[in-house]
Amino acid sequence: MATPPDYSEKIPNNVDLRDDRRLQRALESWQPNFLNWWESMGPTLPTQDVYLRTAINVGREGWAHFGHVPMKDYRWGIFLAERNQKREIAFGQHQGEPAWQKVPGEYRADLQRLIVIQGDTEPASVEQQRNLGATAPSLYDLRNLFQVNVEEGRHLWAMVYLLHAYFGREGREEAEELLHRNSGSEESPRILGAFNEETPDWLSFFMFTYFTDRDGKYQLGTLKESAFDPLSRTAEFMLKEEAHHMMVGTTGIDRVVERTAQLMVENETDDAGPLGGVPLSVIQKYLNFHYSVSLDLFGGETSTNVANYYTAGLKGRWLEERRKDDHRLTDDAYLVDALIDAGNSQQSLGQTEVSALIGLNTDLRREYISDCQSGVTRWNRILDSAGLPHRVKLPHVAFNRRVGAFASVEVSPDGELLTPGEWEAQKGRWLPTDVDKTHVRSLMQPVHERGKIAAWIAPPRNGINGQPFDYDYVHLA
Ligand code: BYC
Q1: Is the pLDDT of residue 5 over 80?
Q2: Ligand 1: which of 125, 192, 336, 358 to mutate, judged by most atoms within 8 Å of the beta carbon?
Q3: Residue 131 Cα, ligand 1 centroid: separation in angstroms?
Q4: pTM listed for this prediction
């Protein structure tokens, strides 16, 4: 049995915080800074209360409680999945040794860096989404937005706990910095590219929760394998919350496609735009954008960083224990996507063989890509059921990349290498233009009335926690 979190504490937790006064005091002094950050950088729409899920236990059954709470009183807590006393390291040079309960000195800098990068994305996404409440298509969607926001806040707490508990003064300084960097800021931006992009409308929000949160799922999956047990247990519990974020993205895009298809069929047109819908071509452009910036989040196709992380046991592979190999990979090779130099200054897109360790970012990115493909299959099924011949698709892996093997070239969604001139002339066919964005924004009229929904999106099939769609999910101020 896991220890149930103590909600009488200032910081609800299942890590026996009260037994470590120093740590408790340090976190309690970070707490008001977090709350200030939430007030100044979190959701801008004033609300009285929101029907939110709060984590109350980490066991399999009944881990969450649902109820209306004022968002500023949300109980952000520290929860680690249950400890397995016998857990052994599953991969790398320490394979078979007991999992670490403390940070080994030689891996301190690398572990801290991974935790800081993970931590940085969490508040970044809250910042990116802060103005969306004002244009929510329904109270149901508004509630889901806020649920995602408070849980990203809790994920920040998860990383800050690790920094405070295991990384001393430097960890505390990094925890402060997590509140000082801001998404899109000129002077101190967030660390990873996608987290400095805007999320100005709800189509972007659904694409972000589908594609970018899904990077989170995969990165957390690799951290769950970590030899550093507290990180592994934290990531395991975060993944549980992450499932709802995936659902918001998947069904959000389902509902946009469904409504667009309906408008196209009813009016026998290819363009749902003039009818108050999002044209399918614009859905495809948004998909192209969010997918390609999310592919960048996996780092370079080849990376010595990831090889070192794996060998040291800091970061494993997706579903490491299900892989049928030696879990060390020192003698293995792997084919990664690459830009091939064909001589005479000609280049082509292809693959090249590298040491398996060096190719681990590509391995993870491929797991992610096949998961993304399942969304595309779903959306095409919706189009098919509506009797439409149109289809959406994932662009080529090299399309619109700014990190890794293809950062220096421009490539079409079909995988054709382009000159800079060709790219400039055609990119408006593949990525959202100002005209597309303006149109999408013009559709974003708020619907804050119970049981009502905006005209550009279909209602959800199910409500939250067994409640109907027309439930009073949010009470506005
Ligand atoms: N932007 O060796 P390389 C989530 C840097 S999302 C800017 O190929 P590596 C969430 C890199 O730092 C999940 N810079 O990269 C989602 C390196 O710099 P140095 C977040 C980038 O280290 C939605 C250099 O380029 N978690 O949870 O193998 C809502 C060479 O790179 C980028 C994590 O990412 C970029 N995109 O892999 C809320 C897990 N990519 O060393 C939350 C922790 C690379 O030359 N992080 N660079 O100074 C990691 O595992 C790795 O750091 C990365 C990069 C996968 C990000």
Answers
A1: no
A2: 192
A3: 26
A4: 0.96
